[in-house]
Amino acid sequence: MPPPPPVTVRVELGDRAYPVLIGPAILASVPDALGRALGELPLRAGLVVDSGAADHAARAERALASAGIEPVRVEIEPSERTKSLATLETVLVALARARLERGEPVVAVGGGIVGDLAGFAAAAYRRGVPVLQCPTTLLAMVDASVGGKTGVNLDLGEAGGLAKNMAGAFHQPLAVIADIDTLATLPQRHLRAGLAECVKHALISADFGDDTYLDWIAASIDAILALDPDAITELVRRSVQIKARIVADDEREEARHGRALLNLGHTFAHAIETLPWLTPDGDPAHAPLQHGEAVAVGLIAACRCAERLSLCHPSLGDEAEAVLRRIGLPTRLAGLPDDATLASLMGGDKKVHGGRLRLILPTERGRARVVDDPPAHAVLAGIGAVRSDRPTDST
Ligand SMILES: NC(=O)c1ccc[n+]([C@@H]2O[C@H](COP(=O)([O-])OP(=O)(O)OC[C@H]3O[C@@H](n4cnc5c(N)ncnc54)[C@H](O)[C@@H]3O)[C@@H](O)[C@H]2O)c1
């Protein structure tokens, strides 16, 4: 039986609107998507490949070649360290050596790191060439590939650490092709980590047309973790729909309660995800945390901080914690540094405005708001709620 046709969500951005195609066996449709978006098939395309998804990328590469499009292939071994200016240069030089021309696109096949890097390369090469995103991790499908944020990390040296996504550009893709078959090779830990972003979407979705997403996730966890195609398609569709609405309303994160809401849990997550000794389950072999694992803990810290400010009822944090635990994500951690160190790491996040901390805090089921300069006692209550032991002396 042929696979069902893909489900499509549109990101409505006027003349830069684009489709997100979600379904099985659709990587072979890369040439069609390019032809539809560009009006004709290009002669060549940059193909930026995630080494962890090389077999999947080979399907896109074969499809390009059979459509008469010559791929200019660059493979990247993704890590937050290789999401760097040096790797960006490698990609740009490969495109320039092949003399890729202005209208010729870049196709990114991989997780969020490769998508962010390839997207930034496309934004910078010849001052901008089109990009097609083909996400192959759950996190990249539901979040990173949609919305046009691209970028790399900056290494600030020993004292400054890694400044996440500190250099980048807004560069919307021509289209997104989320082939759910690629998730079959994704380790379960990555699948669970991607689900943290879906829970985040569910915690802010009520004003964006979906007030039952958290219930649906809670009822569908087993099917999702078993990679049931209908459940995965519905999961990706609902998350992408929410993100698409948010991005359409506030493409460049300029509104107060717009795209910034997607940072729920992230200020805390960014503070802890670069601490190399933290592990999701106490096993040192599992350090460091993955981004989604840090987000899961950050979501609970945000709920408990909001609770302390009487912004939301404790039952919301309890419910979010129960769902995240059933997914198999951490909600409390051992080995967190002391409060002062954590608060200062949170202060280093780029969501700090005018030297003041800015947090996104939940207010009720499915809703959150921006809170500037939250009182220290509430921030510390959030941090305290996700400690499972005494603080580590990090000096
Ligand atoms: N641009 C945005 O709006 C946005 C939003 C959220 C996150 N991000 C970024 O996304 C990045 C995280 O993305 P991620 O979680 O996809 O991690 P990732 O890109 O590091 O990929 C995780 C791992 O999975 C491997 N992999 C990829 N596809 C695979 C597959 N199908 N089968 C097996 N292995 C596979 C990769 O090689 C890598 O080792 C972060 O850098 C974050 O900053 C960006």
Describe the 3D structure.
43% of the residues lie in helices and 17% in strands. The protein has 395 residues and is of the alpha/beta class. It folds into 2 domains: 7-184, Rossmann fold (3-Layer(aba) Sandwich), CATH 3.40.50.1970; 232-385, Up-down Bundle (Dehydroquinate synthase-like, alpha domain), CATH 1.20.1090.10. Strands 1-2-9-6-5-3-4 form a 7-stranded mixed sheet, sandwiched between helices. A two-stranded antiparallel ribbon has the order 7-8. Bound molecules: nicotinamide-adenine-dinucleotide (NAD).
Structure described in brief:
The protein is α/β, with parallel strands linked by helices and 395 residues long. It has helices at 30-38, 54-66, 85-97, 112-124, 138-144, 157-160, 188-204, 213-225, 229-249, 266-273, 291-308, 314-327, 339-347, 376-385, and strands at residues 7-11, 18-23, 44-50, 70-76, 106-110, 131-135, 149-155, 162-170, 175-179, 358-364, 367-372.
